[in-house]
Specification:
Layout (H helix, E strand, L loop, with lengths): L7 E6 L7 H11 L5 E6 L5 H7 L7 E4 L7 H4 L2 E2 L1 H6 L4 E4 L5 E4 L2 H12 L10 E4 L3 H12 L5 E5 L2 H11 L3 E5 L3 H7 L2 E4 L23 E4 L8 H8 L3 E3 L2 H7 L1 H8 L7 H7 L3
The chain binds 2'-monophosphoadenosine-5'-diphosphate.
The site of 2'-monophosphoadenosine-5'-diphosphate (ATR) has 15 residues, from helix 6.
Enzyme class: oxidoreductase
Pathway: Metabolic intermediate biosynthesis; chorismate biosynthesis; chorismate from D-erythrose 4-phosphate and phosphoenolpyruvate: step 4/7
Protein name: Shikimate dehydrogenase (NADP(+))
Length: 278
């Protein structure tokens, strides 16, 4: 392969039509004046391995990976970062010049950067975090919160056993509470995170008592459609600092773009508007 080929990257998943990543990377490529293309690719599970082995030969420098392939790609990679191993999933692949496939997970990084840049003075060490939900997104959020020094995480999930499994995996700084007690943990937390799909367009609302929300708390939602979920609406009315979930998507894309295209992009208001099609 010629060294001067235009670098290609993209996102593989199934379905893929709704992915905002092509818009996001396309915006950066265009505004930063960099050569490159970022292409959405619908890849069914049966084709995953062949596609991943073929992409580097076709001039791809890497790709993002989304549902349902985030776990399986770990087995296809030659190198897995600690954070991807910890989460049991990867969202970013780098095809190295030596032919090795490097798998990383930047979801936790995106989550933390979104809170750091979307608030004034968020201090994860200032007190406990309340995390609602115990699925794949929760795992990334928990790992990231522990890494930045949250003293304690109160974790509530409809299916308690899934929360217990995360506690066993991540250790003693996690306290599991029943889903019906979600209101109580919100009351005690400095940082409140919804990692469930509740509140997303087409899904039921998050129905937990929110009267414990108060000024001084930072509240975020990984759901970004709508941008202001009912949880964030309530939190804003209660005087909390709120951070919507779109920023996590934008920030998680930064490390991959930098590796593939050679320059670190910025997350700006213009980028948000471009991704939202405004
Ligand atoms: P993701 O990878 O996006 O986290 P997931 O692994 O399917 O997706 O997890 C979805 C989360 O939303 C889970 O915490 C799920 O709770 P369960 O573990 O009990 O399934 C939560 N969730 C989805 N629908 C829910 C509902 N109607 N009520 C309460 N929690 C719900």
């Amino acid at each position: 392969m010629s060294e001067n080929r235009i670098p290609l990257a993209g996102v593989i998943g199934d379905p893929i039509e709704h992915s905002l990543s092509p818009r996001l990377h396309g915006y950066w490529l265009k505004t930063m004046g960099l050569p490159g293309h970022y292409i959405p690719m619908r890849v069914v599970a049966n084709d995953l391995e062949e596609v991943i082995r073929t992409l580097p030969k076709a001039g791809f420098v890497g790709c993002n990976v989304t549902i349902p392939h985030k776990e399986r790609v770990l087995q296809l990679a030659d190198l897995v970062t600690d954070r991807a191993a910890l989460m049991g999933a990867a969202n970013t692949l780098i095809f190295r010049k030596d032919g090795k496939i490097h798998a990383d997970n930047t979801d936790g990084y995106g989550f933390i950067e979104n809170l750091r840049q979307g608030t004034e003075g968020w201090d994860p060490k200032a007190g406990p975090a309340a995390v609602l939900g115990a699925g794949g997104a929760s795992r990334a959020v928990i790992a990231a919160l522990l890494e930045v020094g949250v003293p304690e995480i109160f974790l509530a999930n409809r299916t308690r056993t899934r929360a217990e499994a995360l506690r066993i995996e991540f250790g003693t700084r996690i306290t599991v509470v029943d889903w019906v007690q979600a209101g109580n943990i919100i009351d005690e937390a400095v940082t409140v995170v919804n990692t469930t799909s509740l509140g997303m367009v087409g899904n039921p609302e998050l129905r937990v008592p929110l009267d414990g929300l108060k000024p001084g708390q930072v509240v975020t939602d990984i759901v970004y459609a709508p941008l202001k979920t009912p949880l964030l609406e309530a939190a804003e009315q209660a005087g909390c600092q709120i951070v919507d979930g779109l920023g996590m998507l934008l920030h998680q894309a930064v490390p991959g773009f930098e590796r593939w295209f050679g320059q670190r992009p910025e997350v700006t208001e213009e980028l948000r508007n471009a991704v939202l099609g405004q």
